[in-house]
């Protein structure tokens, strides 16, 4: 009997529905000395930036332990692995390639291929080379063209080894958290910076899609966006919730499909609106082979009586240990909403998971709350498919506990436990639950 319980007729139980696990370079690799610095190395040095004052210099030592880690993915029966490439590990400041970095990823990709695991490669999961930040980072339009150059280099090197490329992971986080409220690297604040960074990120995505479609036509090429489904506190807050929805979610989706920003842009002061050059939207709205959807929770909004919205914190609800409400209906809602609003390509759920304060006892990690979280969200995906959303796969976040950005090592999202003192990995019960599900299909 599987610990996950899905309706017997669920497409998730068919072998062609792809199950994978996800990670990102900065969160697991370590090995800072063998690459250029990135904005997160710098950010971690700032007082108060990371809750436990930690950094990514060791992380999960994946740079040394990658073979063991691929074997873990294989042992649980996953047929896909989502990883990201560290830009400063493969392209040096002078534009030449870092051979050691290229070899590391090549070996990893070859092992995945030999293990019959599809490689879903994300090109940018937040680790911008520091030398580019020194020239303005995502506030500088040239960074989008530097990303195009980097994409070309990667694609040439990894021909035949990659199943799917995503240009960006969660441009909302890179722009809003990084350049608008400053809780992520590079820690800049100001609405106009957030909006401009978002525009340059989307431009970078479009430029990279052009490279991918020309130089890697046989991979599935797309982008990964995160969505925090917006709910209204009361009927009179519907308009405010829709504003928030446009500002936090559709700001990143609408340009891809409708070649324009959502209406909420008209509510911004002129000085906060991004500078958009003629032709930018033609680049950004490049056709996609897939859309990656990351989902963890929802937010409830109220009108702030000033023409804008504010968050209305829910007092009594179930939460994971990072404090995020458990709300699986929000996943179904955002998937159906995207399907109604846009002419969508097929979707992969590229991240979903729960942070729980686990511990190892007698060699085991018992994590029933995480199993239940996954069970509810897998069922939410199933309902979305019943409502005609085309979904081809699901990736659990994350393969293993890792560096959770501004939360440092205080939050554990893995289905594999990592002891950060010894680097010993232990498959959690949730990992075994996936194994059981995958074996039963
Ligand atoms: O750990 C992150 C990941 O890097 C991006 N998506 C959300 C995860 C949990 O916060």
Bound molecules: 5-hydroxymethyl-3,4-dihydroxypiperidine
Helix count?
14
N-C termini distance = 12 Å
- Report the strand count: 11
- Give the DSSP E fraction (strand runs of 2 or more residues): 15-25%
Task: Pick out the low-confidence regions.
Answer: none
Helix content: 25-40%
| Sheet with most strands: strand arrangement | 1-2-3-4-5-6-8-9
CATH class: Alpha Beta
Largest beta-sheet details: 8 strands, parallel, barrel
Q: Please, what is the average pLDDT?
A: 98
Question: How many structural domains does the protein architecture include?
Answer: 1
Question: Please, what is the CATH homologous superfamily?
Answer: Glycosidases
Query: SSE order, as H and E?
Result: EHHHEHHEHHEHHEHHEEHEHEEEH
Q: What is the CATH T-level topology?
A: TIM Barrel
What class do helices, strands and sheet pairing give? alpha/beta
**CATH-derived architecture:** Alpha-Beta Barrel
| Overall form | globular
Taking all Cα atoms into account, the compactness measure Rg is 21 Å
């Amino acid at each position: 009997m599987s610990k996950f319980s899905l309706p017997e007729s669920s497409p998730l139980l068919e072998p062609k529905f792809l199950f994978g696990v996800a990670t990102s370079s900065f969160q697991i690799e370590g090995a800072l000395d063998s690459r250029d610095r990135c904005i997160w190395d710098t950010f971690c040095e700032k007082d108060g930036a990371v809750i436990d004052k930690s950094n990514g210099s060791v992380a999960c030592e994946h740079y040394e332990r990658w073979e063991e880690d691929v074997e873990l993915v294989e042992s649980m029966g996953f047929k896909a692995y989502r990883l990201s490439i560290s830009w400063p590990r493969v392209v040096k400041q002078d534009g030449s390639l870092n051979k050691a970095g290229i070899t590391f990823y090549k070996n990893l990709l070859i092992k995945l291929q030999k293990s019959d695991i599809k490689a879903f490669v994300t090109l940018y999961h937040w680790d911008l080379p520091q030398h580019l930040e020194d020239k303005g980072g995502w506030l500088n339009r040239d960074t989008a063209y530097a990303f195009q150059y980097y994409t070309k280099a990667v694609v040439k090197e990894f021909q035949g080894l990659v199943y799917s490329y995503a240009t960006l992971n969660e441009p909302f986080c890179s722009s809003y958290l990084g350049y608008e409220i400053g809780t992520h690297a590079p820690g800049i604040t100001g609405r106009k910076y957030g909006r401009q960074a978002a525009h340059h990120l989307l431009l970078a995505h479009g430029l990279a899609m052009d490279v991918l479609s020309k130089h890697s036509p046989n991979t599935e090429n797309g982008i990964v966006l995160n969505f925090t489904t917006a709910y209204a506190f009361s009927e009179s807050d519907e308009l405010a919730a829709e504003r928030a929805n446009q500002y936090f979610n559709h700001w990143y989706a609408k340009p891809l499909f409708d070649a324009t920003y959502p209406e909420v842009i008209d509510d911004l002061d002129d000085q906060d609106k991004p500078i958009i050059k003629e032709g930018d939207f033609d680049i950004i709205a490049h056709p996609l082979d897939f859309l990656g959807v990351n989902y963890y929770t929802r937010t409830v909004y109220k009108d702030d009586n000033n023409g804008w919205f504010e968050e209305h914190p829910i007092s009594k609800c179930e939460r994971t240990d990072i404090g995020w409400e458990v709300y699986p209906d929000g996943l179904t809602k955002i998937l159906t909403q995207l399907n109604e609003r846009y002419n969508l390509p097929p979707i992969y759920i590229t991240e979903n998971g729960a942070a729980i304060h686990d511990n190892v006892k007698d060699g085991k990690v018992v994590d029933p709350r995480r199993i239940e979280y996954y069970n509810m969200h897998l069922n939410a995906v199933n309902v979305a498919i019943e409502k005609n959303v085309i979904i081809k796969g699901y990736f659990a976040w994350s393969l293993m506990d890792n560096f959770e950005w501004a939360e440092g090592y205080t939050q554990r999202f893995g289905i594999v436990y990592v002891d950060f003192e010894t680097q010993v990995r232990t498959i959690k019960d949730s990992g075994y639950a996936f194994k059981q599900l995958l074996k039963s299909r």
